[in-house]
Amino acid sequence: MGEKVYKTMKSVGSFNIVMGIILIVAGIASGVLVIAKGAKLIKEKSGLIF
């Protein structure tokens, strides 16, 4: 019985680590994209008319 609990805990822990890594990579990628698009807006600020 106890062995089954430890196997379940191991799989859940592994899943949490993988999801954490994926979320960190996605956060960094989206941050880079937002900064790049913001830089493009600043670069072409003179051409924007409201």
Structure description:
The structure is a single chain. With 50 residues, this protein is an all-alpha fold. Helices cover 84% and strands 0% of the residues. It has 1 helix and no strands. It has one helix at 2-43. The longest helix has 42 residues, at 2-43.
List keywords for this structure.
50 residues, mainly alpha, 1 helix, 84% helix, 0% strand, rod-shaped
Explain the layout of strands and helices.
Blueprint: H1 2-43
How would you concisely characterize the structure shown here?
The chain is an all-alpha fold and 50 residues long.
From the alpha-carbon coordinates, what is the Rg to the nearest angstrom?
22 Å
Class of secondary structure makeup: mainly alpha
Helix count from the secondary structure assignment: 1
The major beta sheet can be summarized as: none
Q: Could you tell me the number of beta strands?
A: 0
Question: Per the principal axes of the C-alpha atoms, what is the gross shape?
Answer: rod-shaped
Strand content: under 5%
Q: Low-confidence spans: pLDDT under 50, at least 5 residues?
A: none
Residue-averaged pLDDT = 90
Cα-to-Cα separation, first versus last residue: 68 Å
Order of helix and strand elements from N to C terminus: H
Percent range of helical residues = over 70%
